[in-house]
TrEMBL record:
Protein keywords: Hydrolase, Protein phosphatase
Gene3D superfamilies for this protein: Metal-dependent hydrolases
Organism expressing this protein natively: Cohnella fermenti
EC number: 3.1.3.48
PANTHER family tied to this protein: TYROSINE-PROTEIN PHOSPHATASE YWQE (PTHR39181:SF1)
Catalytic activity: O-phospho-L-tyrosyl-[protein] + H2O = L-tyrosyl-[protein] + phosphate
InterPro entries xref list: Caps_polysacc_synth_CpsB/CapC, Pol/histidinol_Pase-like
GO molecular function: manganese ion binding; protein tyrosine phosphatase activity
Catalytic EC class: hydrolase
Similarity remark: Belongs to the metallo-dependent hydrolases superfamily. CpsB/CapC family.
Name of protein: Tyrosine-protein phosphatase
Length: 252
């Protein structure tokens, strides 16, 4: 398995606090069958700043330790970038990283986003050859209440990444319901852990894929798993399935 969103790097944000914790998290990821993980520390979210060069340095250091410890996990560089007005300026200045040096870039939405602003940002990113992946739309306060709105962003060219914890109900009923609905409406293309620590917000990708198989079927689970692999190879991520049929059939 591949995990495209994690806070595995030690001491850079609200994820792993120190190297020992990162190693314990990495062991836990490897145990459940995760072979590659993209480290995506928060960047420009108002609290943490982790520019590209620093993330690359930290990824190389953690990678060395994993090899020394014999932990079979590859760590790749990335960022979870808050979608602010300075995004394009920062990209042009070389401060930003895509996911594992692919065209895919992981973005976190501001709580008070406006779809028109996002539409413009998505367009500008596409002009630069980038493909925006929206991190956990189901956890966004507006979208948790109105999951169908996320479809507008997907139609503009954004991809959706649902968080395993959301599907598993660990952020509460409302977020779980939004996550399920987005999966059913075909606006989710990727699943990732967004792991922050060993236990409370750990690596639970295997459990999430099991739930997806059970709730949405084997083909959807395979599509999501295949999409994470395609992303890492810089190939096209497949459009999600089950759209209109579910839209009509699904009531809350
Ligand atoms: Fe995150």
């Amino acid at each position: 398995m591949i995990d495209i969103h994690s806070h595995l790097l030690p001491g850079v944000d609200d994820g792993s606090a120190e190297m020992e914790e990162s190693l314990a998290m990495a062991r836990s990821a490897a145990r459940q069958g995760i072979r590659k993980v993209i480290a995506t520390p928060h960047h420009n979210n108002g609290r943490y700043v982790n520019p590209a060069a620093e993330v690359r340095r930290a990824v190389a250091e953690l990678g060395d330790r994993l090899r020394q410890e014999g932990i079979p996990l590859d760590v790749l560089p990335g960022q979870e970038i808050r979608l602010t007005g300075r995004l394009l300026e920062d990209w042009d200045a070389g401060q930003l990283l895509t996911l594992a040096d692919t065209p895919y870039i992981l973005l976190e939405m501001m709580p008070d986003f406006e779809i028109s602003h996002l539409a413009e940002a998505i367009h500008e990113l596409k002009v630069r050859g980038l493909i925006p992946v929206i991190a956990h739309p189901e956890r966004h306060p507006e979208l948790a209440r109105r999951p169908e709105w996320f479809g507008e962003l997907v139609e503009l060219g954004a991809l959706g990444q649902v968080t395993s914890h959301s599907l598993l109900g660990r952020f509460g009923h409302m977020i779980r319901r939004a996550a399920f609905r987005m999966c059913r409406e075909g606006t989710i293309h990727l699943v990732a852990t967004d792991a922050h620590d060993l236990l409370r917000r750990g690596f639970d990708l295997k459990e999430a894929y099991e739930l997806i198989r059970k709730e949405f079927g084997l083909s959807y689970a395979e599509l999501l798993e295949g999409n994470a692999e395609a992303l890492l190879r810089s190939e096209t991520v497949q459009a999600a399935i089950q759209t209109r049929r579910w839209r009509k059939a699904w009531f809350f």
